[in-house]
From TrEMBL:
GO terms for molecular function: hydrolase activity, acting on glycosyl bonds. This is Glycosidase. Pfam families: Glyco_hydro_130. Belongs to the glycosyl hydrolase 130 family. Keywords: Glycosidase, Glycosyltransferase, Hydrolase, Transferase. The keyword Hydrolase applies. The keyword Glycosyltransferase applies. It comes from the Bacteria. InterPro entries: Glyco_hydro_beta-prop_sf (IPR023296), Mannoside_phosphorylase (IPR007184).
């Protein structure tokens, strides 16, 4: 068997067991089962916390496009007039004529725990009974892109919670890696790709973050850095209250093919050489851009000091061969691989990614690749 393969596809998800059945009677489909949080359980097996983006099979109804929204009483449909929206991006639509950029989603995301064998090659169980769905108003439009870090005896899972109120980072905590309790919002509006280091630094929790905004300021002419979204760091005494570090973290280099934006991928793990993390970089193309995975090494005692940043040759790129049998389900115009987890497996790492915003990809990477 190859060391680079898809482990879960959209058709592997049983939507008859979806939480959306509480309120949505119309046919739906899995737009994507992707971007899995990734960790090793106490029993030695691996766990993917898969983002299931579930969409209406017929979103357009007459003169309106419909969006799915969670409520305390179940799931509901909101109607937006077709002549007032821009549907260029298949993942979302934009409301026209507003003072600010206002989006609605074409799907609602929930999280599905999928247990794998210790080597990551086989699905052992799909835990529908432990699925994580919206549970508060700040999650009206879904829970997305889990990242899982084991620190001590607990598993910490960050997620992006989406609503009209805010676009926030939320925290779930587990004592076994499988059953999670929601602790609430830990970072406010549009701070994506937050992932905890897998271990304390100086007795404190440390995390990578990636604030988003509509405006960025220029570096001086001739600078090696490109302005735009970058990976910052924050620290906390308790995993709930966070202070950004004053020093910058990882920044996109000027002239790089992936300088449109960068963002965190895998929770940093401690190696003999320092903290190792895989991150994504985006090349501007079409609506979405081309997503690739790169890697960086951070100082053990002062992770704000970047020891190495491998941003020339990508570690992972999208692989059309992997999705050839589900190409008819693809909806993105550009290649995307979005790496979200890495687990130590002796002489190699088991790496989990979202492929094409469609499926879950597993790649076995020798440790020698990072020397």
């Amino acid at each position: 068997m190859s060391d680079d393969f898809l482990i879960l596809r959209p058709d592997d998800v049983d939507l008859s067991r979806s939480p959306l059945r509480r309120g949505i009677d119309e046919p739906t489909h899995v737009l994507g089962a992707f971007n899995p949080g990734f960790t090793r359980l106490a029993n030695g097996n691996l766990l993917m916390m898969v983002r299931v983006a579930e969409a209406l099979s017929q979103p357009v109804d007459g003169d309106a496009v419909r969006a799915i929204r969670w409520t305390a009483d179940g799931y509901a449909l909101d109607r937006h007039p077709l002549d007032q929206v821009d549907m260029t991006d298949p993942r979302q639509f934009e409301l026209r004529g507003r003072g600010n950029r206002i989006l609605a989603l074409t799907s609602l995301s929930w999280l599905l725990p999928v247990e794998l064998s210790a080597d990551g090659r086989t699905v052992i169980a799909v835990h529908y009974d432990k699925a994580i769905e919206p549970a508060a108003r700040y999650q009206d439009y879904g829970v997305e892109d889990a990242r899982i870090s084991r620190i001590g005896d607990l598993w910490y899972m960050t997620t992006c919670s989406v609503s009209a109120e805010r676009h926030s980072t939320t925290l779930h905590v587990s004592s076994d890696g499988l059953h999670y309790d929601l602790k609430g919002i830990i970072l406010d509006h549009q701070n994506k790709d937050m992932l905890f280091f897998e271990g304390l630094v100086g007795g404190k929790f440390l995390a990578l973050t990636r604030p988003l905004g509509e405006c960025y300021f220029a570096y001086p002419p001739g600078s090696e850095w490109a302005g735009g979204p970058s990976i910052n760091m924050a620290q906390s005494p308790d995993a709930l209250h966070w202070k950004p570090l004053d020093t910058p973290g990882l920044r996109a280099r000027a002239g790089s093919t992936s300088a449109m934006k960068i963002g965190g991928g895998t929770p940093p793990i401690l190696t003999d050489a320092g903290w190792l993390t895989i991150y994504h970089g985006v090349e501007r193309q079409a609506t979405v851009g081309i997503y690739r995975s790169f890697w960086a090494l951070l100082d053990r005692d002062d992770p704000s000091r970047v020891l190495r940043m491998e941003d020339a040759a990508p570690l992972l790129e999208a692989s059309p061969a992997l999705t050839a049998d589900i190409a008819h389900q693809m909806y993105l115009p550009t290649p995307v691989v979005f790496t979200t987890g890495m687990v130590d497996a002796g002489d190699h790492y088991v790496v989990a990614s979202g492929e094409a915003d469609l499926a879950c990809r597993i790649t076995l990477i020798p440790k020698a690749r990072f020397l």
